Amino acid sequence: MSELAKAYEPQAVEEKWYAAWLEGKCFEADPRSEKPAYSIVIPPPNVTGILHLGHVLNNSLQDILARRARQTGHEVLWLPGTDHAGIATQAKVERELREAEGKSRRDLGRDAFLERVWDFKDRHGDIIIKQLKRLGCSCDWSRERFTMDEAYTKWVSHVFVELFKEGLIYRGKRMVNWCPVSLTALSDEEVIMKPQRSKLYRMRYELVDSPGEYLEISTTRPETLMGDVAVAVNPKDPRHAANIGKMVRRPFPAAEIPIVADEHVDIEFGTGALKITPAHDKADFEIGLKHNLEIIDVLHPDGTINCPDCPDLDGLDRFKARKLAAAKLEEMGLLVEVEEYENNVGFSERADVPVEPRISMQWFLRYPCVDEAAKAVESGEIAFRPDRWRKTYAHWMENLQDWCISRQLWWGHQIPVWYRKEKLEALKGAESLDMADFDKGDIHVGVEEPADADEWVRDEDVMDTWFSSWLWPFATMAGVGERTDELKKFYPTSDLVTGPDILFFWVARMIMAGYRFEGELPFRNVYFTGLIRDMKGRKMSKSLGNSPDPIDLMEKYGADGLRFGLTRIAPVGTDIRFDESQIEEGRNFANKLYNACRFRQMAEGSASYAVGPASLGELPPYHVDIIAKLDALASDLDRLYADYRFGEIAQRLYEFLWSDFCDRFLEAVKGDLREDASADARDKTLAVFDAVISRYLQLLHPYMPHVTEELSQRMGFTGDGEFVMEKELAADGLLAGADRSAVEAEQAKAAAIYESAGRLRNLKAEYNVATRRDVKFVVKGAPNWLEGEKGVLALLSGAGEIAIDASYEAPKGTPAALTDIGEVALPLEGLIDVEAEKIRLGKEIEKIRIEVRKSEGKLGNASFVERAPAEVVDQERARLEEWKGKLSQLEEMVASLG
C-alpha cells in the first residue's frame, strides 16, 4: 500500500491519472484485437464551442459505456471529433471581422475569408476537446476527426456526386426558410416554432367595379402587402361566392388584382378572405402556382423592404415597415381594426430571429433508403431508449419533405458542381439558373474539379452542416471506397448517445446514410438524454444566468464529483432538474470512499485469508452479508446496464458504499481491528475489506474513473504499470457456488443485528440516554446464535452490556421493544432520574395537547374547511394526525416509567 493523504484533493489526482492513461495509450483501439468490438462515436460538438452541462451529461454517459465495455472484455473504440458548424462558426468570424476591422467577408473575398476562419478554428477549436479531457473522457484521441478534414471532405463530395447521379439531388427554385441574419436557406428542422404575441390587422380592399364596396381581409403581415397578387376565398363561403372572378384594388403600389377561389382558404379564420403573397408564404406559393399568379418578392435577403415604387417603405427593416404599412392603411381609411393575436412564428435556430419564407434557387435531396431506415426502428433492430421516441421517428419518416442541402455560406463543404464559363455568360441576366438551362457538357459534377478548371466556375454555395455529419459513423473510419481494419472491426457501432432535439437533424439521417453507403444500420442502440433544467423548470441559458460553468464545478467538486452527481439525477429520457447540491454530494461520496480506504490503511497489515465460497462456515454473518451484497450489486449492475438505467446504477453504487459498507459493515467490524482483537478476526476482516473494496472500485470506475484508479493503486489492488480501467470484471461473484440458503441465513442474522441495533439506539434516545455507553440491555426470547454476536450488538447499539436472560421479568416501568432478536428491555435504574423524566415528558405532552386543540379547532371550523384550498385543509389534517401520534407515544413513555 501507498499511504493516502489526510484529505482527498481531486484536481491533482485527476490530472495525474489522465496523463497516465494517455501515456499508457489506454484509450487507443486495436482493430486487430480478437476481443469482441464495442464502438461509439461522439456527437461532434461545434469546433468553436465550449463545454456546457448538456455536454457533461452526454459525454459522461458515453464514457461510462466505453469504460464498462473495456471491463467486460471488449475492444473499445470511442471515436471523437468536432463539427465545423457552418452557420455558427462563420457568424463568429464575421462578427470578429466587423468589430475589429469594420469589414465584411465580401471585402476580403472567399479565399482570404476562409483563411481567417481556419485561423479562428486553430485558436478556438481545441477548447472543448481539452475540456472533455478534463472531464475524464476516454476517447481514442489518436483518431480524432474534424468534418473539414481532407479525407472527410472527399466523402462528403462523393456522397453528393453519387446521389446526384441517382437523381436524388436536384437544383430548383423553391420556397425555403430564409434567415435574414445568416443570409442563408435553412431546412425545416433548423426552424424553431415559438408562440408569439402578434397583431392581426383587419384591412379592406375596394372592389374595382363597385366603388365604395370593400372586401375585408385579415393579415399579420401588412408589410408584404406590396407583393399581393390576388385575394383568395373559399368557393363554399356564401359571403364571398358572388365576388369570385372580380378585381380589387391593392392600395400600394396601386394595382388591380383578382379574387380567386381556393378550397384551402379557412372559412373560420378572420374574414374568410386571404391576401395571396406567393413570394412570402408557403401556402400562398402553392395557391399562386395553382392559379398561375405572378410572384413579387418585396424583401431583400437581409429582411429589408425591396419596393422602389413605395419609397417611404423601400429599404426599411421588415418590422419597422409593418408599423408604417399599418399607419398608411389607417391614413387611407382602409384599416378596419387591430386585434391582439397569439400565433406560432418560425425562428432561425442559430440566429434566433424570425425566418422568412423565400423563393430561392437551392439544392435539394430526396432521401435515400427511407423504407430500410423506417423498418430498422419499427422492428427494433435499432432500439430507441426510451422507446417512446419510436413514434416520433415514425411520424417524421412518414412525412418526409425534400431536404434543402445548400447554404449561402463560404465556410463549409462547397457544392462539387462546376458550370462552364461560356454557358454562364450566355445565360447572363437570367432570373435564376435551373439544371434544365444547362446541356450535359456545360455542367460538371464530381469529387475533383474539371481538367480545364480555368474554363469553369464552381457553385458558390456550401452544403448544410448536417450533410457532412450524417456520414459520421462510417466516414470517420475509412476513406471513400476503403475497407479499413477500423471499419471492418467497429462498424456498425454499438451505441449512440444523443439528445432527442437532433433526432431528425442527425439520427434519422445517419440511419439512411448507413443503409445507402454501407449497406447496413450505423448503430444498434440510441439512448436519448433528457434536457437539463434549473430548479424552476427553466432551460439553462446564459441570458437567464442559470447555467453554471462545468469547469468551475470541476474545480470546486472534481470531475468525478460532477460526473457522479449529474448522472445520479438523470432518469431515463426525462428532463433533469439541476441542483448544485447534488454535485456536492458527488464530491462528498468521493470523500467517503477515500476515507473508508484510509480507515483500512490505518488498520495496517496485509490479509492472508482467502475469501471465497469456502468462507461461508468460517466468517461472521456481517462479512458474509457484505460479500453477498457485493455479488448482488454486480448482478444488478449487469441488468441495469443492459437497460441503460444510468441513474439507478449510480444510486445502487451510492447505497452500497454509504449504507451497506460504511454505515453497517465497517461499524460492525471495528472491534476486530482493535489491539485486543484476535489475529484471526483481524485477518478475516481485512481480507473481506480488501476483497470487497477492490471489486467495488472496479464497479464504480466507469462513473468515477480518477478516484477509483488512485485508490486501486494506493491500496495495492493494481501493480506498477497496471490500470484498473484495463482490468476485466470477474466472471463470478465471491460467493459463487456457495449454498444459497446458507448465505441467506447468515444475511438474515446480520439484518436482525443491524435492525435491532437501530431500534435499541432509538430506545436510548427516547429516554434521554443516547450518549450513555454504560447502558445494559436484557434480551428475552433470543435465538441461539445471538450469544456469539453480543459484542457486535453492544458496539452497534452503544451499550455497555447485552445480557441474554430467558426468564427475565422487567420491573414495572422498564422501557422495552420487540425486535428481530427478541424482546429487549432497557433497565433505567441508575441511568435517569425517573421523577425528573416524568416532569420533562409532562411538559412535552402539554405542548403537544395545545397543538392538537388548535388543529382540531381549525378543522372543526366549517368556514375554514369550506373556504381554504383543499391542499391547505389536507395539510392541516396531516398535522393533526402527526401531533396525535406524538402525543400517544409520549403518554406510553410516561406510563412505562410507572
General description of the model:
By secondary structure, this protein is an alpha/beta fold. 43% of the residues lie in helices and 16% in strands. The chain is built from 28 helices and 29 strands. The strands form 10 sheets. It has a 4-stranded antiparallel beta sheet with strand order 6-5-14-16. Helix 20 packs parallel to helix 22 (679-700). It is globular and about 115 Å long. It starts with 9 loop residues before the first helix and ends with a helix.
Query: Radius of gyration over alpha carbons?
Result: 37 Å
The proportion of residues in beta strands is 15-25%
* Multimeric status of the protein: single chain
Q: How many E strands?
A: 29
Class from helix and strand fractions = alpha/beta
**Which strands sit side by side, in order, in the main sheet?**
6-5-14-16
Query: Which stretches are low in confidence, meaning pLDDT under 50 for 5 or more residues running?
Result: none
For the residues shown, what is the average pLDDT? 92
- Percent of residues in helices: 40-55%
Helical segment tally?
28
Task: State the end-to-end CA separation.
Answer: 58 Å
Largest sheet: 4 strands, antiparallel
| Mass-distribution shape | globular
